[in-house]
UniProtKB/TrEMBL annotation:
Residues 268-390 form the Thiolase C-terminal domain. Residues 7-260 form the Thiolase N-terminal domain. SUPFAM superfamilies: Thiolase-like. This is Acetyl-CoA C-acetyltransferase. It comes from Sphingomonas leidyi.
Length: 391
């Protein structure tokens, strides 16, 4: 009997919405439900056959509280019998959802799992769940024991991004140039229609009346080196600005992960198979550097070299992360984030993992390439790596 395999049948995402922008009117539960409905409709699978929904979400409060994954199922066309769970691995939440889904299939305990993610950063602002407690004079997430282990240390992704840039010798000019290229690649991909196969249309209200949202709102088609370079730095002595960091974004995404038995039973055609899964953790202060070492480990365990990977999706939380990753791995820059990244397209936190996977598997298919690698820096110094093979 051969080894078990986990297949990606399809992966979809909404087009990104800017903070207070075109998706601001969508409740996050309904936005997530739209991607669940789309993945079921596109695959043609019986929704009652779904064993579980694993939903990534970082801001689990307010409209994203009370188990947003289950809420999305109950707002969708899926039957009440489909269970769901909501998970938080920070920015890698829905990439971890993919890995949990794959592990469930590989273990033989489940055959059909939807990995998904959602984040409305307009309606549930980043850090709002912590801020509410601070305003009430209650405690924060850093405990006395953490303070004893890391006295006076600030756990901050902004600090981490600056530390990565400093450690790897990346100045502002390099970060801004990378940011400009992200916008250029995203704009070109949009104009070519490269995102069409992955985007779930959403109806929105505009001053001119109802419209269909199918284009990522954050792309600056007229971006220039001058416009990016004119944005104020976040720290006076730093190199990070809002222009070379990911955009706050509203969005949802989903991927259908199934076993070989489910492929046959439901007559499904897969886009890709899961080739390898890795998650690692390291320094929680520099924190965003971990994808470098996670990639090393993933390639080693998969018995592959960096040159064997055809396309890479390295989340552009800050430009310093993919640039440091390129320097560390020696990967071909032409294979990295070929359709742009979060600097141009937005980073809807809990939705970004399955969002990047949707872009990766469809790009592999469109370009006729075989292997893709996705990695994500995550709060606390964690990183996921997922390697897929297009079929």
């Amino acid at each position: 009997m051969g080894a078990a395999t986990a297949y990606i049948v399809d992966a979809v995402r909404t087009a990104g919405g800017r903070r207070g922008g075109r998706l601001a009117g969508w409740h996050p539960v309904d936005m997530a439900a739209a991607t669940l409905d789309a993945i079921v409709a596109r695959s043609g699978i019986d929704p009652a056959a779904i064993d579980d929904v694993i939903m990534g979400c970082v801001g689990q409060g307010g409209e994203q509280g009370f188990q947003v994954g289950r809420g999305a199922v109950l707002a969708s066309s899926l039957p009440e019998s489909v269970p769901a769970v909501t998970i938080d691995r920070q920015c890698g939440s829905s990439q971890q959802a993919i890995q949990f889904a794959a592990q469930a299939v590989l273990s033989g305990t489940q055959d059909v799992v939807i990995a998904a993610g959602v984040e409305s950063m307009t309606r549930v602002p980043m850090g709002s769940t912590v801020a509410l407690f601070a305003q009430a004079g209650l405690g924060g997430p850093k405990s006395p024991r953490q303070e004893a282990r890391y006295p006076g240390v600030q756990f901050s992704q902004f600090l981490g991004a600056e530390l990565v840039a400093r450690k790897h010798g990346l100045g502002r000019a390099a970060l801004d140039a990378y940011a400009l290229e992200s916008h250029r690649r995203a704009a070109a991909a949009t104009e070519r229609g490269d995102f069409d196969a992955e985007i779930v249309p959403l109806t929105i209200d505009t001053p001119e009346g109802p419209a269909i949202h199918v284009r990522d709102e954050g792309i600056r088609f007229d971006a220039t080196a001058e416009s990016i370079g004119s944005v104020k730095l976040l720290a006076e002595d730093g190199v990070i600005s809002a222009a070379n960091a990911s955009q706050i974004c509203d969005g949802a995404s989903a991927a259908l992960i199934v076993s070989e038995a489910a492929l046959k039973a439901h007559g499904l055609t897969p886009l890709a198979r899961i080739h390898h899964l890795t998650v690692t953790a390291g320094d929680p202060v520099i924190m965003l550097e971990e994808p470098l070492f996670a990639t090393d480990r993933a390639l080693r365990r998969a018995g592959m070299t960096i040159d064997e990977i055809d396309l890479f999706e390295v989340n552009e939380a800050f430009a310093s992360v993919p640039l440091a990753w390129l320097r560390h791995t020696g990967a071909d820059p032409a294979r990295l984030n070929v359709n742009g990244g979060a600097i141009a397209l937005g980073h809807p936190l809990g939705a970004s993992g399955t969002k990047l996977m949707a872009t990766l598997v469809h790009a592999l298919r469109k370009r006729g390439k075989r292997y893709g690698l996705q990695t994500m820096c995550e709060g606390g110094g964690i990183a996921n790596v997922t390697i897929v093979e297009r079929l």
